[in-house]
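On to my pick:
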Amino acid sequence: MSSYFHQQSAPWFRIGRLEVTTTIAVVLLGAVGMLAWVFAPSAQQWLVYSPQQILSGEVWRLFTWPLADGISLWGLINLALIWLFGRDLEAQIGRAKMIYLFVGIWFALTLMTSLVGLLVSGAAIAGLQMVEFCLLLLWIAEWPTRRFFFNIPAWVFGLVILALQVLPLLAYRAWGNLLGLFLALALVAINARRLGLLSQYAWIPGAPSARTPRRQAAAPKQRKHAERKATDSERIDQLLDKINASGIHSLTKSERAELEKLRQRRR
């Protein structure tokens, strides 16, 4: 599987030898959240998003829940997987669109938690685990035939991890959570399609509209400019030939003005 993880987009900036792309920036923010847990463990409870707490005026939780993650083996693995899968997706669509992809994932997961909170009590979300889950599914959908561990096709691995999310919800009859999960995945897929991913799935709405390239639109104007430039060159050559043959005084006043105008236009 490692042979596929080699693409990387242009960085926004560098910290020493570290090239900070959009994906790396998200990983660094996740690491900051973990370090905050080390120095202030109680701070995590102020970052978790729960719809009930929003009703109490704690609106900041809408934006801080991805940072609410403590240091653990799975937390570090999640950061590594975000980097591995995210950098391939970012290389595909570019660093700017990758920001919109992450924002879309955040919006979809926040909306999912909010809707589930209307149906059941205790709904909450924290950390980057679900963000990594969405990125992984997008990566698999983009390259379904790539090989994972033990030479397993990516699409098979995707079905397995999706089943591991869905089956427990079915077993506990958690219909609200199940509906929220599929809604979030649908929104993530539509946003990804809009940004240029998942182009092989025509049934997913949100495909970017075809635009006429600027170069093609400007072609007639450029052609007209080139034709005028060629005509100007021919006229200049005619006037210069007359000067070479009979001297500068052979030009009339209007011809001298015309020659100067043509020279100015060629600059």
